[in-house]
Amino acid sequence: MASSALSRIANLQRHFNPSNPTSKGEGLIKISPEVSAALTRGKPVVALESTIISHGMPYPQNVGTAKEVEAIVRENGAVPATVAILDGVPCVGLSVEELERLAKMGRKARKTARRDIAYVVATRGNGATTVSATMIFASMVGIPIFVTGGIGGVHRYGESTMDISSDLTELGRTPIAVISAGVKSILDIPRTLEYLETQGVCIAAYKTDEFPAFFTETSGYKAPCRVDSPEDCARLIDSNMNLGINSGILVAIPIPKEYSASGNLIESAIQKALKEAREQNITGSAETPFLLGRVNELTGGASLASNFFVCIPMFQEDGSSSVTSSPLQM
Ligand code: PSU
Ligand code: MN
What we know:
By secondary structure, this protein is of the alpha/beta class. The chain is 43% helix and 14% strand. Strands 1, 2, 3, 4, 5, 6, 7, 8, 9, 10 and 11 form an 11-stranded mixed β-sheet that branches. A two-stranded antiparallel sheet has the order 12-13.
């Protein structure tokens, strides 16, 4: 990451978290020594979610990917802060042992969105945080930047099922910049963009005019804003923060070209699965499991590992973005 962007992030953190002793969650959140030291010294920190670890991939690929992502953050001069709730304690920054524990727990850990946090803490449970819950804890400890693969969105037929991810409302109420590869076309992308507009979320696509669809660079829908460098992103975040806008920013980085051929294959499987779901009248809560199962079959099951990519976009020194890849089963 360009050093001017890194120092801007460090400045944002100071701004965002002026060692405010009354900040929410004080004494209830366990911040790892590494993350705590970075926040105190004004070193840039990047928050990471954990549902992708527990629910996104099988063990041990999940822990491998989680470690790889943390290593990429470090290589780029920042400190990773993976967020999860362990034995009822919200943790910001996990040790290798804690990452390993969460990864082994897999789906036994509760998928934890905003609505689930109080319950997981009250019952001393284990929770893997989604984008919404991760944003909340990042905000409480003063981390303005959060990197993930895909965010949740408005589901297809969401206009009647009202299945809209709480990631979207969280972006509307918590001033965190979420850097992601966009929204999967399993979801309703145009309605997701409309809903984010209603929520007042600034959406910027990175080096493109189009909003990316996770597996493919294009979705057919224009992104409201465009940024072309880490500095552009930093200025956007800075403006949002300085003005106290209080809603989030979504920066969408398209899948790198070298992976887009596989991305296109997956996209055509998604389209086929969607058509089958319509023909077989599969809707509501049965829809997503059907679609994902079918896409898995259509892309050849065994080739899951090579065909599915979890895009972890990161800014590079030269302004390009990099990606880590791993099998995905969600
Ligand atoms: N979509 C993806 N990858 C993911 C998720 C969604 O392409 O990893 C995960 C994230 O943790 C996200 C959550 O925050 O699922 C959204 O779930 P829901 O639709 O139930 O809100
Ligand atoms: Mn939902």
